[in-house]
Design a protein that fits this description.
This protein has 243 residues and is α+β, with helices and mostly antiparallel strands. Helices cover 23% and strands 29% of the residues. The strands form three sheets. It has an eight-stranded mixed β-sheet with strand order 9-10-11-12-8-4-3-13, sandwiched between helices.
Length: 243
């Protein structure tokens, strides 16, 4: 309070509380890659100022994906596994059961983030999550992702359009590591891959995913809000016949 012109005390107006932003958390379960990718594209096209930011947690049947600038020779022996060229950055990546895959549908301006700071935030969140399970991990400036003793345990790949993100990250909990020998991760021949199970941490994937979501939400300054329904964009995409 401050004194008025005649010595009376004048009450200052209260400062309104700032509510933390909401980060929706949706569990998609096991879904084929293509409909989820198309649903992310649809979400990006239809976003408006009031569209909430979201994390989509998903597991995919086996699939190799090639980023926009990926060189085909880095996919050494895909065999019968489908191969999809997509619109994210990065080289070749494998997705399959036993991975925690989180797709991030964020408006970067809301969080005062650029592309590099978002990548750093995600790598730091993965490192902190793995550390909470007793695994010492680190990022590498020359090869985006997260590593343990020289072996890759998490991959990152993003697409930014009109200031909004899609795609995200994948953490190896208990995938078929043999599949990673069929490609050059990050375009580096001979780069080894590992997983929490290979490192002796028999941790349920849902525990890892929940811890990772909490780390990301905290770094964004958001409140995580679980939403039980599938995203409407995915429902619409799944309803369309494949072309």
């Amino acid at each position: 309070m401050q004194p008025g012109a005649h010595g009376a005390l004048r009450t200052q107006p209260p400062v309104p509380a700032v509510s933390p932003a909401i980060l929706q958390s949706r569990q998609l379960g096991l879904q084929p890659y293509l409909p989820v990718w198309r649903a992310m594209q649809l979400q990006l096209r239809e976003r408006g100022p009031a569209t909430p930011d979201a994390l989509w947690r998903v597991e995919h049947p086996p699939v190799f994906t090639l980023g926009r600038n990926a060189r085909p020779e880095h996919l050494v022996a895909p065999g019968a596994v489908p191969v999809v060229r997509v619109d994210r950055g990065g080289q070749v990546t494998f997705h399959g059961p036993g991975q925690v895959v989180l797709y991030l549908l964020l408006e970067l301006r809301r969080h005062r983030l650029g592309v590099r700071s978002l990548v750093d935030l995600l790598q730091d969140a993965v490192v902190a999550t793995l550390g909470s399970f007793g695994v010492a991990a680190y990022g590498r400036p020359d090869a985006p992702g997260v590593y343990v003793a020289g072996a890759k345990i998490a991959a990152l790949g993003l697409r930014i359009r009109s200031g909004c993100s899609m795609h995200g990250l994948a953490v190896n909990v208990a995938p078929q590591l043999e599949m990673f020998q069929r490609m050059d991760p990050c375009g580096y021949p001979g780069l080894a891959s590992t997983s929490l199970h290979r490192l002796g941490r028999r941790i349920d994937a849902d525990r890892v995913a929940s811890a990772l979501e909490a780390e990301i939400a905290a770094r964004l300054g958001c409140v995580r809000e679980p939403v039980p329904a599938l995203p409407g964009e995915l429902v619409r995409t799944l309803a369309r016949p494949e072309r």
